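Figure-free illustration: sequence to structure, shown twice.
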Amino acid sequence: MAAGGACPQDGLLSAEHAEVLACRHAVDFAVKHDFSQVILEIDAQEVPRQLISSYSFNTSVLGPIYDDLRCIFEEQRCWKINHISRNG
């Protein structure tokens, strides 16, 4: 792990909203520090599913965040996102 963290967040709509914002924060960190290979492991099933499965624009409330992340992952060919079990 290169970095980790926690911070208070106001205005969250759901647990998925918190997870996708955490993912966005991690991706921004990796871009800022010019990481060439990234494996993002996340225990929320919906976030990787949304990023991997759909190539059309997401019209949900969280769609713009997913669309931004999808664009970054498409540009960074060596980056991966994996779902991991909460049990380890």
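We now fold a second protein in the same way, so the two outputs can be compared directly.
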Amino acid sequence: MGLIDVRELLAFPQGDNSSDTLIAGIHFNLTTLKHWNYTYYSNNTFSNGSLCFLLFEPYTPHLLMNGTFLNSTSCYSPIDPIGTRSEIGLLYACLFALSIMFTFINLRKHGRLFLPTEKRFRAVGRRWQWYWMLMTAAFAIISGITGVDIDRYYLPELPIVLSNFFWFLMLPTTMATNFFMVVPRSWSNIEKQRDPDQARLLAEPTATDIRFKLAAFLLFGGWLTTVYSLRHSIKHYRPQNRGLFNRFGGFLRYTPIKFLLTLPLSLVMIGYEAACAFDFTISPLKLGTDLGLMYGLGWGAIAAIFLVYEVAGYIDPNEDRELIRQRRIRGAEIDQEMGITKKPHWWSRLNGQRGDMSVHNRIAENVHELGGGRATTKNLERSIEMGNMPISKRRDSSKPMNDQEALRAAANLLFPSPSGINEQSDSFQDTPTRGRTPGPNTDATTTRANLGDRSDSTNSTNSGVSITAKPQQVRSMLDV
């Protein structure tokens, strides 16, 4: 390929005279070329360090006396056909583009909520896996498409930088780690691989500098963090095993299959990136790199991780649905242990029972089912006549009574408390009054008058309960 041919400085060929040179059958003014510092290279190009033009057919330009080239073609133009690197890159780009559809399907499946949100739980926790996969797939598509022009450009320039830039973005997004050790840096020296000496002096030191090495170790640190988090979860939420080998076996047994597959694949990806940081010959930044290692370890590992997660997302159920299923099973087991048989859903419709009934209606239905009869009715009427109706706090009539107050009122109405009668009977007992104790010379009439005053005040505050009323006769438990 012309991209990796040795580029050497050549003397201008002899023309018709000392100020003329003949290149590819075209005469050029030698004085003008030297005035603008143009140099002739063995790869059939003119270059003065700022501009570069092709000299072979059908891209041969025409030089004017003022140094302007007409019908010129830049050396950094996609004039060559696509090669093996471009074809494999397009194949991976298509695969990652196809994965986006399945990622959206899994995102919708696992991101939907069927249970009320909790204070310490956010749905974004289970959605972020698919967000990272969408980002990685987007970077892979851009890298694969821009890699086409790496083969098509006559001399390497921007495409090799763009393709590798987005490939390096794929690595931290796959591990969901920091990528600032790779992104904010100068990439211009990577383009300068127009001859072996230029690649060795400029491109290789940039591709193997300290930042790429640190980025590889940061990726490995993220991988170790993932393994430690998995080990921590298994240790605290799974049964413990004794012994080193038993613990390791338990770790493998309780680890989900998708993690058992993706953790080694991600380690292969990190190992390849670390090797590229020390050996430029296998790095994707090199123009003529080993494509087997590049696409097998650098791209194949990421594609395999995507495949595992897409299949696992298709098989695994939604977490909320799974919790609902487990709760239903536990509830059925508890009901079976307690001997409770739940009625089917059509039972309430057939019997006219509604779940939105008020508290008063439910109590009335319970009383009707118990069959209190006339005794209960008379007891309720007597309680109302005797003033045992519970008096609620003053409230706005426009606001409805809440369920607790309504339930309390109904319960006091059905089952009156004997506390009021006890208080009335206690008020007629001779108990010493607070303050001074009446002396021996106290008039009996005065004492009787005081007792009468107390009885009158007591009767006025207890809704007229008469002390001469006959005691109630309990005829059933419903009258209590």
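Summary for the second example: The chain has a mean pLDDT of 79.
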